């Protein structure tokens, strides 16, 4: 399996090489080369891992992680923490003139490469989240490609190029082939952990995609609104200026003679100072001759004295309107006498209802107008185009990369419609682009990973716990069996198995236990001619008779507070503490009679009988041998005297030993 994995992994070098040499297009941009380089190093690290060079592989992965983590931080950290300019400045440290955008791998590719790096150093172990990391890497690469194919020109680069993605896909295939046998071993806990965490991953991807689109749309709207506001503000400004110049024209109605150059300059200077885009403010006499200009600059003085009807046919209609129709006349964008394009406003100076003193010409120079307009916008970060009907009148292009968005603003320059196109720089838009979609993505994926680890760990622990519990159950059963056996062995050591009565040993212990109690009586009971039972009716009947006798004896003796035991063979004994000789004799006789009444018969119909010897220790220390011998003697006498009787030994007083 690892040979197949190594083969598949090495195949990743094919697209890597094709990408690096730029097959199928121009030389790839730097960020694509960086991505290919990082993917190549990771491929190398994975091959080293497969061939046993683990520490070397880990070293390579650490090297790769550094730029990847920096790139990820640049995507996620807010602008007010680290500005894009700071990132660019750091990039300048690597190579002169290099910006962050130039080398930074695409967002989703960066994440995929980080996941691949983790997969390599953790050997894709399922306990460390291998399967989830792998599927996340695949989903991120696929999502990146979909994103790149879908929305045309996204602001934030999310996907790497074709070759990088292909090599990443082959590397991921190699990784999964290498890890598959290990994963199969843990299929059950793996499935339980994988399903919920994968669901979370998918939800996070959807949320990220939605947030990304919303933030980009919002930013687009904001910039478009700013461009519109700029246009409106400028239009208003020009309108205000026009109104001011109308007032200026009205001033001259108070005079009944054309203004002197001195008067003209004095009055016009105030207006011209405020309206920087005015090329000049001129006085046109009723003959359409320019007789006064302000400011008296060289190009303005050159046109002094020119008769507009002749010199400027494009503006003839506008000037006639002011001079002869006593209405404001305005030109379209025309070529001015000063040699630059511009717009002229003619404002009549009325003497009475039919006569005019002349007209005020308010000459707007287009280059100056564009300059004034453009000066209101940051020249570093905006491309600007001033146009009319598709014809570019003025433009300014900064030397930074411009964003794919262009915003239009309509301008009304004193009645002349112009179009201002504003195109912000890519960097400026990225500065303003909110980071929360990326933060959502990173946080969500991390949470999904943690969820996997928790669920996987929990499932494994639960399984181990179950195993331990089963083993415990078996052990407990074993212990129970052994202790039952032990109890049985202990019971057997002190009891007779056939009659279930205490045996000789327990009887002796009972005697010892009652050693100080006086009087202490002992009976010994022997079945008469028991051998015949065995011989004629078989051992089983003999056994049954013994059991029966045991029951009779036990009930009787235990009711008197004594202990009835099987002494051996067909012999039974009783220990009767605090029972004197008379009472002992009574008890023994009761036992004899009860046996007789039990109607246990010999083969010939005779009843089963027993002979009993009784002894009572009245005083002195307990001497078991002496007592038993005395009881045995009494029994012997009972047998000798014809059986089925009770015989008592004389009351026993054992002398204290010196
Ligand atoms: N069925 C059975 N027989 C037993 C058991 N223990 C001892 N015996 C028999 O008990 C008989 C005892 O016989 P003996 O000691 O000769 O005494 P007896 O026949 O009872 O005659 P006396 O005691 O002299 O009246 C023997 O045949 C033993 O085999 C037992 O547990 N079961």
TrEMBL record:
The chain crosses the membrane at residues 35-53, 60-82, 102-121, 128-146, 158-181, 193-210, 438-459. Residues 281-373 form the CHASE domain. InterPro entries: CHASE_dom, Diguanylate_Cyclase, GGDEF_dom, Nucleotide_cyclase, Rev_trsase/Diguanyl_cyclase. Residues 518-651 form the GGDEF domain. It catalyses: 2 GTP = 3',3'-c-di-GMP + 2 diphosphate. Keywords: Membrane, Transmembrane, Transmembrane helix. It is an enzyme of class 2 (transferase). SUPFAM superfamilies: Nucleotide cyclase. It holds the Pfam family GGDEF. PROSITE patterns: CHASE, GGDEF. Its EC number is 2.7.7.65. This is diguanylate cyclase. It comes from Billgrantia desiderata.
């Amino acid at each position: 399996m690892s040979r197949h994995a190594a083969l598949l992994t090495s195949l990743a070098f094919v697209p890597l090489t094709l990408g690096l040499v730029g097959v199928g297009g121009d030389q790839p941009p730097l960020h694509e080369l960086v991505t290919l380089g990082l993917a190549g190093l990771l491929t190398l690290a994975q091959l080293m891992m497969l061939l046993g060079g683990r520490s070397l592989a880990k070293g390579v992965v650490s090297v790769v992680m550094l730029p990847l983590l920096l790139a990820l931080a640049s995507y996620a950290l807010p602008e007010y923490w680290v500005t894009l300019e700071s990132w660019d400045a750091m990039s300048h440290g690597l190579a002169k003139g290099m910006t962050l955008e130039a080398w930074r791998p695409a967002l989703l590719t960066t994440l995929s490469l980080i996941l691949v790096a983790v997969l390599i150093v953790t050997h894709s172990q399922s306990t460390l989240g291998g399967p989830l990391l792998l599927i996340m890497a695949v989903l991120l690469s696929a999502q990146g490609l979909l994103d790149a194919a879908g929305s045309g020109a996204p602001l934030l680069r999310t996907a790497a190029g074709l070759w990088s993605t292909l090599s990443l896909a082959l590397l991921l295939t190699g990784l999964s082939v290498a890890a598959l046998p290990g994963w199969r071993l843990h299929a059950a806990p793996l499935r339980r952990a994988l399903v919920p965490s994968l669901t979370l991953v998918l939800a996070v991807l959807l949320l990220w995609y939605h947030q990304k689109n919303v933030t980009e749309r919002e930013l687009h709207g904001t910039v478009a609104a700013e461009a519109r506001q700029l246009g409106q503000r400028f239009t208003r400004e020009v309108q205000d200026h026009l109104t001011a110049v109308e007032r200026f024209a009205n001033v001259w109605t108070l005079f009944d003679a054309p203004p002197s150059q001195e008067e003209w300059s004095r009055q016009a200077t105030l207006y011209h100072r405020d309206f920087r885009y005015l090329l000049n403010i001129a006085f046109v006499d009723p003959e359409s001759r320019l007789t006064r200009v302000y400011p008296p600059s060289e190009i303005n003085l050159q046109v002094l004295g020119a008769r507009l009807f002749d010199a400027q046919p494009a503006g003839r209609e506008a000037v006639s309107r002011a001079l002869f129709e006593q209405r404001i006349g305005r030109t379209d964008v025309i070529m001015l006498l000063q040699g630059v394009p511009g717009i002229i406003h003619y404002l009549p100076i009325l003497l009475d209802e039919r006569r005019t003193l002349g007209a005020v010409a308010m000459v707007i120079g287009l280059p100056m107008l564009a300059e004034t307009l453009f000066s209101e916008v940051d020249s570093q970060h905006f491309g600007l185009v001033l146009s009319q009907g598709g014809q570019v009148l003025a433009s300014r292009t900064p030397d930074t990369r411009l964003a794919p968005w262009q915003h239009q603003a309509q301008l009304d320059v004193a009645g002349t419609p112009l179009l201002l196109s504003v195109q912000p720089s890519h960097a400026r838009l990225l500065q303003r682009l909110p980071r929360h979609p990326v933060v959502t993505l990173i946080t969500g994926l991390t949470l999904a990973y943690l969820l996997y680890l928790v669920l996987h760990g929990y499932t494994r622990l639960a399984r181990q716990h179950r195993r331990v519990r089963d083993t415990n159950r078996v052990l407990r059963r074993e212990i129970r069996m052994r202790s039952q056996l032990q109890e049985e062995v202990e019971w057997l050591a002190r009891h007779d198995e056939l009659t279930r009565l205490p045996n000789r040993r327990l009887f002796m212990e009972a005697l010892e236990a009652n050693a100080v109690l006086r009087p202490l009586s002992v009976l010994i009971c022997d079945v008469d001619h028991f051998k015949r039972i065995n011989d004629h009716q078989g051992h089983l009947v003999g056994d049954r008779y013994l059991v029966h006798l045991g029951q009779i004896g036990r009930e009787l003796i235990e009711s008197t507070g004594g202990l009835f035991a099987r002494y051996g063979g067909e012999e039974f004994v009783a220990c009767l503490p605090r029972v004197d000789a008379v009472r002992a004799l009574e008890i023994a006789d009761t036992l004899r009679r009860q046996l007789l009444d039990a109607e246990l018969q010999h083969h010939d119909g005779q009843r089963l009988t027993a002979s009993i010897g009784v002894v009572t220790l009245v005083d002195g220390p307990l001497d078991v041998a002496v007592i038993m011998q005395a009881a045995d003697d009494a029994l012997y006498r009972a047998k000798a005297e014809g059986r089925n009787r009770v015989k008592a030994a004389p009351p026993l007083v054992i002398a204290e030993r010196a």
